[in-house]
Every structure is written in structure tokens, then in C-alpha cells.
Amino acid sequence: MENRELRQEQILETLMEDNPEEMKELFAGFRNLMMAYDCAIREVKTKLEILNDELSLVGDNPIASIQHRRKKPYSILGKLKRKNLPVTLEAIEENLNDIAGIRVICSFVDDIYKVSEMLQKQDDLSVIEIKDYIANPKPNGYRSYHMILEVQIRTVAMDFWASLEHKMKYKHEIANAEEISKELTACAEIIAATDLQMMKIREEIQKG
Predict the structure, then answer these.
(1) Which helix (H) or strand (E) holds 2?
(2) Structural domain that includes position 169
(3) Is 2 considered catalytic here?
(4) Could you tell me which of 166, 142, 141, 140 has the C-alpha nearest to residue 152?
């Protein structure tokens, strides 16, 4: 482990020497980006805890423990280097999907699929990819269930719109569905404009 960390630190030093200006720009926004990943971890962890409580109402608690981690800065930069990617925030966001991770430990195999199913039903989470190494173990015998998730962050107004749109999508036999859909689209534009206006008002208040 010490040798690996030493190599990673050497990669970081090389990046600093080779790309001083790029590194300065990266570190300027890096803290905010990492905070976003930390918030995403807390969001998903809270959802898992709530789901565990809900599932416990109809049986035993399916989740035995929840662990989480976020890659260290030198690990992230080292991975960019190994992948021959530019040292930018955009490269991190668009190409690295393992910066933040949560490990859920379940007592039984069927509990894993129960938790997965409930996560997939969450409106503010999108499943990017699933790798089922339980049904399809790796050659070395590795078994686990991997989900790559996208966490959706919204304003209060956006969330209210999304909840209405969700009801519209899953409610059958709506007589004026087309008209309602057009009204929702119009509301989305109004909400976007209102959110921006509210932000400007807040900035004016803070200046005063």
C-alpha cells in the first residue's frame, strides 16, 4: 500500500511540474467539485437508510451496513494521467465514474436485488449502468452487484414540477393528456426563469 501511495504522489508531482497553469485552474474548482461528490454520497446514503427502514416494515432489515469513500485527489489525477486524459474538471466529471462510491452489505442475496429495485424506482436517481457479478461472476470467483448512479439535484420549484410530471407519466387514461403535457412544458420555462430571477434577488439582498 505504501509503494502504491508513493507512486501516486510521484504522479501528482509530475503533473504539477508539467502542467503548472492547468493544475492551478484545476485546484481552483476542485474543492467545489469534491463537495458535490460528498453531497451525492450523503444523498444516496440517506436514501439507503430510509429504504432499509421501509423494507424492515415487511421483514428483516435487508442492509447490514453501509460504507462509503471518495477517491483522494492524487488518485483522481493519477487516473487521468493513466487514461491520457486532460487535467480538467470536465475530464473528471465526464470520464471518471468511480470517484465516489458506496458499499452496501446485505445479509442475503435476495436482499441485494430488493435494494437495487427500490433504488431504481427513485425519481431523483438515474441508473447509468448495472454490472451483476452475482448472476455472472468474474473468472476469479468475484461476486458483487454494481450500480453506477447519477444523482439529480433540483431547486424546490424544479422538484415540484418533476413530481407533477411523474404523476402525469404514470397515470393512465388521462383525457386531456396532450393539453396537460403542453402546460407542463410551458411551466418548465416559467420555473426556469423564476429560479434565475430568485437567484438574482438573493444576490441583491446579499449585496445590501
Answers:
(1) helix 2-18
(2) 157-207
(3) no
(4) 166
Residue 34 sits in the same domain as residue 78: yes
- 3-class SS of residue 6: helix
What would the pLDDT profile of 161-208 be if each residue is shown by its tens digit? 877 887 777 666 777 878 888 888 888 888 888 888 888 888 888 886
Q: Which long-range contacts (CB under 8 A, 24 or more apart) does 9-16 make?
A: 9/74, 11/74, 11/77, 11/78, 11/81, 12/73, 12/74, 12/77, 12/78, 14/81, 15/77, 15/81, 15/87
The answer to whether residues 100 and 118 belong to one domain is: yes
**Domain tally for the chain?**
2
Q: Which of 5, 13, 54, 150 is catalytic?
A: 150
Average pLDDT over residues 47-72: 86
